Amino acid sequence: MENIYRFSVKLLNGETLALRSLQGRPVLIVNIASKCSFAPQLSALEKLYKKYHPMGLEIIAFPCHQFGRNEPLENEMLREFYQSHFNLSFHISEKVLVNGPDAHPLFNYLKVNTRGIAQNRAIKWNFTKFLVNSEGVLLSRYAPRTKPETLKSIIESQVSNESRPIQFAKV
């Protein structure tokens, strides 16, 4: 079965995150933009992360400038903005494309593996969310208007399905 573990993500801090390192944990993937009207969702995403990360949840945010030119910032300015305005502690990638021939391969995988009406459909706007289970398989795609807090029960069902406690390395 296909999963996200074959992909890597270049993070804003310069590190590369191999998604295989997230095996055994559910992952919420979101394309974001600092100037988007949905940017207040970042606070709600951080609350979800703080609550469910100890149970295994990971969140990876992908800044993207493809929609309404809502992500004009680059690299260090992006990191500073998200830290100073939202105090985000989850993973943030470098700016990516989510549609088109130069889209990040992870987003191509997510679009192709979405079941139902949105299958293989282009991402329409910032803050489209994808929930991946602890085996790296896409469970659900959520529209930009879907508030992160409405995902609590599905996230709880995924973190409660863990058969072993997650051990995190001290950094």
TrEMBL record:
One of its GO terms (molecular function) is peroxidase activity. It comes from the Bacteria. One of its GO terms (biological process) is cellular response to oxidative stress. Transmembrane segments: none annotated. Keywords: Oxidoreductase, Peroxidase. CDD domains: GSH_Peroxidase. This is Glutathione peroxidase. SUPFAM superfamilies: Thioredoxin-like. The keyword Membrane does not apply. The active site is at 36. Belongs to the glutathione peroxidase family.
